[in-house]
Fold:
Amino acid sequence: MPSSLPDITQPAELEGEPGVLEVLGQNIEKVYGQSLSELQKAAAEGSLNRVASEVVLWHSKLTLAEGNLEQATRNLTESLSGEVGELTDRQMELASAVNDAVTIRDVRATVVSTLLKLYPNGQAPTPVPRGAVARTVASAAEPSASVLPPSPGSVSSATQGARR
Structure:
């Protein structure tokens, strides 16, 4: 089923365009029919379903990552506002910190986006055990990882390979 939510994988951070955080926030509000602040309050009270709680949790983590990225970018920009020439070790460290912050922000954005795509109506079709949503998203990043633990008495292929 095609999603009616905007695709965040396409660059959108042009002058005056909403960023990833804003687009995902709007998508969450559209799916749940409530503002993010209302959803955060409901999550704190424990009155959201598990999928909605996971979405709110990961959006909060995304918000923190966006703030860290902005700070890392400011630090790098300040360090570059001097003499033009070869980059110092400190400037290279700051550039690496920006790259790390971008990666963390993008992973968290991908988790939120994946949750919204996996559960477009905001709920899992069946009861979901705590943490299962996060494991499902993590397995999407690692196609070889199994979401479900092996059933009792079964031997995983990794274990079988180790026994040979």
